[in-house]
User: Fold this.
Amino acid sequence: MKKTRSLFSLLLAIVMLFGIVVSANAYTYQTCLNPAGDANLNMTLNNLDLDGTLKPDMYKGHKIVVAASNGDHSASLKEFGKIFNELTGGEVEVQEFPDQLFEKVQLGLQSGGQFDVIEMPIAYIHSFAYAGYLTDITDELKTLASPNYDVNDFVPSMFKTYAQYQGKIVAFPYKPDSQILFYRKDLFEDATLQAQFKAKTGHDLKVPETPEEMLEAAQFFTKSLNPDSPVQYGYSTMMSKGSGRFNWFNRLGAYGGSEVKSDGSLGFTDGSGVKALQFILDLGKCAPSDWATFDWDTSNTFFAQGNAAMMEQWPGLYLTCNQAGSPTKDKVGYAVTPGKSPTLGGWGLSIVAGSTEQEMAFKFCEMCTSKDGECVKIQYTFDPCRTSNYSRDVVKDVSGIYQALSANLACATQLADTDIPYVSAQCGDVEEAAIQSALSGELTPEQAIDQMAQQLEPIIADAKD
Amino acid sequence: MGKRASARSAATVMFVLLTLLTAVFLFPIYWAVTMSFKEKADILVTVPYYFPVRFTLANFSDILRKSSYNIFAYNSAKIAVITTVLCVIIAGMAGFALTRFSFKGRKTISNGIFIIRMVPGLVYTVPLYMIYNRLGLLNSHFGLIMAYCTFSLPMSIWLFLSFYEEVPHEIYESAVIDGCNEYKLFLSIALPLVVPSISVVAILCFIGSWNEFGLALTLMFKDVYKTLPIAINTMIQHERDTPFGSLAAAGTLAMLPAIILSLTTQKYIVKGFTAGAVKG
Amino acid sequence: MPMLEARKGVKIQKSLSDRMAPAVFLAPACILLALVSLVPIFYSLYISFLKYNLAKPISTVRFYGLQNYIKMLTNPQFQDSIVWTLTFALSSLVLEVLLGMILAVMLNSERTKRFNAPFKTFLIIPMMIAPVVSATIWKLMFYPVYGVINCTLQLMGLGQINWLGDTFWAKIALIIVDVWGATPFCVLVFQAALKTVSVEMLEAAKVDGASPWRTYFSITLPTIRNFVALVVTIRLSDALRVFDSVMQLTNGAPGVSTETLGTTIYKTAFRYNDVGQGSAGAFIFFVIVSVVAMVAMRLMRRQET
Assistant:
């Protein structure tokens, strides 16, 4: 009896010791969700080790190279790299390439052996997947992922557009991006203006949901059309070369069109393209004549300075409007783009098929996109991709824009870059050229759309080659 | 009007003109430097602040503390200095050979060098990447220096040629009669005569290497190897407000060594000329 | 002309090391140029005959003959960019050389000797700035609504100009930026060149009562003719290859009217991933630049005896 009792207590002691050791190693991460360091947006994350599937030193001596875009992209990934290193001992090297210069990644992928993980815009990921450069992670998601990873938690339409491609899963959603309607809350909710609007048009002033409503509201708020307007312009956006097509995409869906259909044929030649383009020209009368040269900085400053009543833009405008000293601070509301077909941007993480560290790369990407992992990158202005995170305590208070963002993401299907492999950039340039010609009056909308279709068809055909 | 008076008025006219032109030329730089001291909100405004209303050092502290600015600056400096030294030596020798000796193929070589300079940089990007990748020279300063040196050679040799051609052959011949061999000729006679071109070539080489962007972008991957222009360019981020103040601060700091260099070598050029040999 | 025979007919024996001298002096330059310049050029030439897309798997690369060249040459945008690039280069060149010469003459003149030192230093500075930085600063200055140039024009009562969006003004803006960046180089070389003009001849001309203009055109200019040819050729070939400022300021906008040869080829190769066609375009580009430069050089350079 004595022997078994002492054996039993020894066993108990060992178990207790083990328990202490294990719990002492539980990894917690403190983060502040707001880049400005707002104290009540602090958060403690406990599950970065993915339910214990990331064990200390499991990847010691191993290394993966991540190719990422500059600025917040690489900064967030470097932070993840640090965390991953603390958790597993594996080294993560982040190599950053400057804004929009994707050729380094192309060169690296083709010559092989350069990268293990890449962070790219979605259309490019699809292109690489088509060429066979990326790993299909469908199986790994079932076998390698931690039990709580929950793939279905990602915003469904986003996951479908970002991660799924030709029956495979090729990416982890990393940065969601959608066009959002920004509007001057203070103007739209002003009783005097509402009365004036009703008197002029016969119905109530509300946040526009259809293109027609937006045009009407824009006309009301444009000084040249309505001398009583409190602001100069009813609408503004960046229509410069390289960004103009987003606005056109925003309208295409409302008129029943799309850029390209899944079989590669053009989806805007049924008249929707012309309608959308004509709409832009009509809207242009309510917008500054310079808008064709407005880039990110100028257009955002223009709106944040209070010159326009409405603007469609990527979420980043929110930061410009709400920084200290901005005339429109706390006066801006956010909504779904009229027509309910906002342009979808977005970046994803993908594993390179030729990488020799498939498992480590997978676990790294998994960590970055896990429920807790997503909260790490919020401080770098990278918004969550998971539905649960949008309703999660503290997270939902981060930014007034989250509600609108998730609403937009839920109905967005049109990608900012053409979703045909290899030729995204070329198609984008063709569309931009045609839209710019229409804006300057060089071509009529019909001619512009014809030119677009004419130039796009051979390019797309060539891509299948 | 007396000669003195007309001379003075001519001088005044030139002074005014020079001041005006210099002011116009320097305005963008003045703009960049003042922008680096401006608060963010003062930069994109509809009534520009020609002189900063509010001074701030935040932009400078931002780049000096947060980014690895000193690493990039060191990289750039190291590469630029080595490239310049190598280039001056190699081009100086080549220019000498092309004017001093007449041999078969001299014309072809000098025309060839002339033509190589016309080749657009794009031609080199993909091949150099692949070749360097094969040789393991990616991410290495050595590879970049070799490339920079080579690309500066045509222009440098050209410049040296122009100055070498001004040197009369008699000088060489009299030295040869005195028993000089070719190497001594080069070092003690030819080089001193073309000192001004050394300065010009050195300045251009240094600046070219210091400011080069395209090739460094293609061949450098790791952060620790990057040069200043790349570091500055990465401050421009897609879909985020461009930090114009910090960009200007980084650009201003990057300008400093080059400006100091030009300040110091300016006198050298002038000295070189006045100490030069007698012109026939 | 045999250089090693002294005039008195005494033959000098050349040592072996002396005979090897030309090779020794030229070797480093030739080796570097051959390895780092020629090899990639030939490799690029090889690529230009392939259908080679960077985004597609390497198995799709195949021989394509002259198709890349034909496609490039028949591309209307490429043709337009050639016209614009040539126009741009010539306009910039004329302005730069004139301005550079005027400045150099002023800086070199006796009359300004007392105060020209600071000017010499200041005028060099635009050349020192990294193209990345200067292009961004100029873009900022040309910005609509917020750019300092437009604001200044507004303050002077002249109204704003749509610098980056108007077909004509965008081109002017690009020329301004190029002239700004390249004039210092011209000033530098011309200054050094002017110093080679023999002071005695100038004095003699003055004594003879020649006007400054006459002196300049009959004595100074012919003496520095080769330097002028050098500057013209270098500036021409550089202006034809303009890239950074166009990408930053207009990105080819409005529409595609300011796309230069450089940007078109870059976009073909790296934005559209067609390295084969891009390389072909680059060689066409190279031919154009060489021809123009050779013609300029031939026309301007003093013929060698």
Chain A has two domains: 24-176+345-415, 180-344+417-463. The domain at 180-344+417-463 of chain A is CATH 3.40.190.10 (D-Maltodextrin-Binding Protein; domain 2). The longest strand of chain A covers residues 63-69.
